[in-house]
Design a protein that fits this description.
With 92 residues, the protein is mostly helical. 72% of the residues lie in helices and 0% in strands. The chain has one domain. The longest helix has 37 residues.
Length: 92
Amino acid sequence: MKKINDVAVFAITTTFSVLAYLWLFLVLQDKQVETWEGVVTFLLFWVLLICAYLADCMRAKKIKESEASKFGDLEHLTVVDFYNKLVPIEKG
């Protein structure tokens, strides 16, 4: 069993999957696919890809911001400061 850490992309994919089956049912009721139905189907595929990509980008940005907050302002952080925050010096 695998745990899903980010449900945004999963939820988008699941929603589009259900909508795709409903769309397929509607399109094939008359047993004929018209050109406009094929075009709409093709365009909805690209909408799915763009939505999933944007959700993944927002997740990556959120992870990057949370990691940056752990170490403070990374733009002004030197390598030595980064190392000292990453690996605390043991006193003893």
